[in-house]
C-alpha cells in the first residue's frame, strides 16, 4: 500500500503548493479528465537506469523488454460537451444578477475547437513527450545503441492515440539521440486497444444498458448531488431552475479539460473541495460500472490485449534462450508500446485484479468509499499508463559459492515488475515486486490463453462459466 501513501503525500504537496500562488486553483482531481502531471508532478531527477537494474537478495537482474499500455494524453472535449457548455454558459450569463460576480466566468469563451475530433492537445502532447523521455531514461541501457525498429508501437484507430505514440516516441529519441532516427511507424489494432467498440455483448449488456449503470444514475439524483447543485446555484446567484444535475457533469468535464491545458478554469471555481470530491465519486461510479471491475464481460473483453502482452514477452524469452545456443538467431522486441483509452486501461486493470475494491462502489456508500482503490483521478487520468518490465536474472555470486549446487531452475531466470503510473506496484499474487515471470504467466493464463474474442462477444452465446 506504499503506492497509495506516496500518492497521498503527492496530493497534499500539490494542494499546498498550488495554494502558495495567488489563486488556489488546483483542487483534488477531475476524474478521467485529470491532467497527468497532477498525480505525477514533473520530477527533476529521474534516475538513469532506475528500472533497468533490479535485484533481490538472491538475484541480480537487467531489463530485456518493456511492454506498456498507455492512455492517450489530454484531449479536447468532444462536440457534445462543447455544445452543452455553450448552452450552460448562455443560461448562466443571462441569469446572473450581480454584475461583478463571476466576471471571469461571464467573459469565458470556449477556446477548444468545436468539432468532434477529441484531438490530443498541446498539454497532452507534452504529457506523452515527458513520459517517453522518463521511460527511456529509466531504461536507458535497454535502448542505448539499439535500433529503434526493435520498439513496436501499436495504436487504436482514434487519431489521439497515434499522436500520443508519436509524442512519446519523440520523447524517447530526445533522451536517446541517434544519428539517423527511424521514421515513426505504428500499427492500428482496435481489437487490442478499442475492444469496447467491437464487443457487441459488452455494448448490449453494459454500455447501452441503463440497468447496468443504475448506481451511477441513482447517485445523479441523490441528496449529495443536489447539495452540490444548490451550492453552485447559490454561489452564482441564479434561479433554481437555471441548472440541473447533468449540467454539473459538463461543467466538471470542462473544468478538468481546461486545467490540463490552461492550468486554470473559471468553471473549477464553482466547486469547493467537498463538491469536487462528490463530483469525482459520481464520475467514478460511471467508470466503475462501465469500464471497471463491476461486470465480467467488461474486463474479459480485454483478453486480446492481455494475450498480446504475454505472447510478446514469451517470444522475447524464447528468442533469448535460442540466442544463447545459436548466436545467429533473429532479434526480439525491446519495447511493445500500446496506446489506447480509459476504456482500454480500465478493463485491463480489472483483468489483472488491480484497483478492485472489496466493497463495490454504490450510490449509497459515498462516505464509506473515501479511501477507495478505484479512484479514477489517480488511476485513469489522461496519459495513465501501465508498464511491465521483463528482466533476465542471474543468481548472486556469494550465494553460488555458499551453496553446494547451483540452482539451475530456468524458471527463475526471468522476472517481471509492474509499474502503474510510474510507481512500482505489486502484481496480485506476487510476494515481491520482482516476480518470477512463469508465476505471473500462470496466474493470467485463463484470460490470455483462452481468449476467443468473437465467441466471447457474441451477444447470443452464453459462456460456460457465466452466472
Ligand atoms: C442489463 O443489465 C442488467 C444488470 O446487470 C442485466 O440483468 C441485464 O441482463 C442487462 N441487459 C442486457 C440486454 O444484457
Ligand atoms: C442501444 O439501445 C437502443 C435501444 O435500447 C438501440 O436502439 C440502439 O441501437 C442501441 N445501440 C447500440 C450501439 O447497440
Ligand atoms: C473483485 O473483488 C471481488 C470481491 O473481493 C471479487 O468477488 C471479484 O471477483 C473481483 N473482481 C475482479 C475483476 O477481480
TrEMBL record:
Keywords: Cell membrane, Disulfide bond, Glycoprotein, Hydrolase, Membrane, Signal
Subcellular location field: Cell membrane
Record GO terms (molecular function): acid phosphatase activity; bisphosphoglycerate 3-phosphatase activity; inositol phosphate phosphatase activity
Catalytic reaction annotation: 1D-myo-inositol 1,2,5,6-tetrakisphosphate + H2O = 1D-myo-inositol 1,2,6-trisphosphate + phosphate; (2R)-2,3-bisphosphoglycerate + H2O = (2R)-2-phosphoglycerate + phosphate; 1D-myo-inositol 1,2,4,5,6-pentakisphosphate + H2O = 1D-myo-inositol 1,2,5,6-tetrakisphosphate + phosphate; 1D-myo-inositol hexakisphosphate + H2O = 1D-myo-inositol 1,2,4,5,6-pentakisphosphate + phosphate
GO CC annotation: plasma membrane
Main location (coarse class): membrane
EC number: 3.1.3.62, 3.1.3.80
Taxonomic placement: Eukaryota, Metazoa, Spiralia, Lophotrochozoa, Mollusca
Disulfide topology: 61-393, 255-268
Family recorded in the similarity comment: Belongs to the histidine acid phosphatase family. MINPP1 subfamily.
Protein name: Multiple inositol polyphosphate phosphatase 1
Amino acid at each position: 500500500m506504499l503506492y497509495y501513501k506516496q500518492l497521498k503525500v503527492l496530493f497534499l504537496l500539490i494542494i499546498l503548493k498550488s495554494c502558495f500562488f495567488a489563486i488556489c486553483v488546483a483542487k483534488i482531481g477531475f476524474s478521467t479528465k485529470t491532467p497527468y502531471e497532477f498525480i505525477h508532478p514533473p520530477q527533476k531527477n529521474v534516475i538513469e537506469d532506475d528500472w533497468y537494474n533490479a535485484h533481490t537478495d538472491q538475484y541480480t537482474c537487467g531489463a530485456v523488454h518493456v511492454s506498456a499500455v498507455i492512455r492517450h494524453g489530454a484531449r479536447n472535449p468532444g462536440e457534445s460537451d462543447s455544445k452543452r457548455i455553450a448552452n450552460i454558459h448562455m443560461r448562466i450569463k443571462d441569469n446572473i444578477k450581480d454584475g461583478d460576480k463571476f466576471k471571469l466566468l461571464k467573459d469565458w469563451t470556449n477556446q477548444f475547437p468545436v468539432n468532434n475530433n477529441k484531438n490530443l492537445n498541446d498539454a497532452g502532447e507534452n504529457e506523452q513527450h515527458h513520459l517517453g523521455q522518463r521511460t527511456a531514461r529509466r531504461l536507458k541501457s535497454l535502448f542505448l545503441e539499439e535500433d529503434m525498429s526493435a520498439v513496436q508501437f501499436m495504436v487504436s484507430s482514434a487519431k489521439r492515440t497515434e499522436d500520443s505514440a508519436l509524442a512519446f516516441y519523440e520523447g524517447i529519441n530526445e533522451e536517446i539521440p541517434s544519428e539517423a532516427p527511424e521514421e515513426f511507424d505504428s500499427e492500428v489494432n482496435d481489437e487490442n486497444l478499442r475492444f469496447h467498440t467491437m464487443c457487441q455483448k459488452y455494448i448490449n449488456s453494459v454500455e447501452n444498458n441503463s440497468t447496468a449503470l443504475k448506481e451511477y444514475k441513482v447517485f445523479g439524483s441523490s441528496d449529495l448531488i443536489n447539495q452540490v447543485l444548490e451550492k453552485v446555484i447559490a454561489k452564482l446567484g441564479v434561479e433554481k431552475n437555471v441548472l440541473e444535475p447533468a449540467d454539473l457533469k459538463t461543467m466538471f468535464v470542462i473544468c478538468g479539460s481546461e486545467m490540463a491545458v490552461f492550468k486554470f478554469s473559471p468553471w473549477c471555481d464553482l466547486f469547493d473541495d467537498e463538491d469536487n470530491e462528490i463530483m469525482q465519486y459520481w464520475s467514478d461510479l460511471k467508470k466503475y460500472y462501465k469500464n471497471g471491475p463491476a461486470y465480467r464481460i467488461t474486463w474479459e473483453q480485454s483478453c486480446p490485449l492481455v494475450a498480446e502482452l504475454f505472447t510478446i514477452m514469451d517470444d522475447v524469452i524464447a528468442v533469448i534462450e535460442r540466442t544463447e545456443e545459436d548466436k545467429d538467431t533473429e532479434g526480439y522486441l525491446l519495447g511493445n508500446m500500446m496506446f489506447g483509452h480509459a476504456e482500454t486501461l480500465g478493463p485491463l486493470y480489472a483483468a489483472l485484479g488491480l484497483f478492485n475494491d472489496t466493497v463495490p462502489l454504490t450510490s449509497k456508500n459515498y462516505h464509506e468509499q473515501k479511501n477507495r482503490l478505484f479512484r479514477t483521478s489517480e488511476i485513469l487520468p489522461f496519459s495513465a499508463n501501465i508498464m511491465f518490465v521483463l528482466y533476465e536474472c542471474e543468481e548472486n555470486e556469494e550465494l553460488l559459492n555458499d551453496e553446494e549446487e547451483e540452482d539451475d531452475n530456468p524458471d527463475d531466470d526471468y522476472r517481471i515488475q509492474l509499474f502503474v503510473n510510474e510507481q512500482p506496484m505489486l502484481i496480485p499474487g506476487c510476494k515481491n515486486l520482482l516476480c518470477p515471470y512463469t508465476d505471473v504467466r500462470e496466474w493470467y493464463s485463463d484470460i490470455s490463453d483462452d481468449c476467443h474474442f468473437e465467441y466471447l462477444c457474441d451477444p447470443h452465446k452464453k459462456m460456460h462459466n457465466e452466472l
